[in-house]
Amino acid sequence: MTATDRSLELTRVAAQAAADKLAHDVIAYDVSDVLSITDAFLVASAPNDRQVKSIVDEIEEKLRDECGAKPIRREGDRDARWILLDYMDIVVHVQHSEERVFYALERLWKDCPEIDLPEDAKATQGKGAEHAKQLAREADLDGELN
User: Fold this and answer.
1) pTM of the entire structure?
2) What CA dihedral angle connects 79, 80, 81 and 86, to 10 degrees?
């Protein structure tokens, strides 16, 4: 079994919305062969809580306006460290960068096929690592100045 055309459409629109809000490392997996509850997982991250919320809001808006889809469940709003949007056909995970590294969802789903995403979403790959390196350089520079 593979993800439905509707699931692929929702996934691609959500991925583009995440990329538009500068999400890091946007990736999607076709989990339809291993799960009966959904067809696809989309995972994205951001370096701070405010950006996590912004990405989630943009995904919800685009899926509503372009696809007529509303989530049946939204979890994790209070802390904005990991917000989950359940659209039944797809599940969207937007995580704070620290949560992304700690929980490593990619390891769980690495055997599932990746879903081809829009170019803007593909271009987000590696942004989390770049951001972490930048923070490390800044911390080193602060240490040298003090």
Assistant:
1) 0.89
2) 120
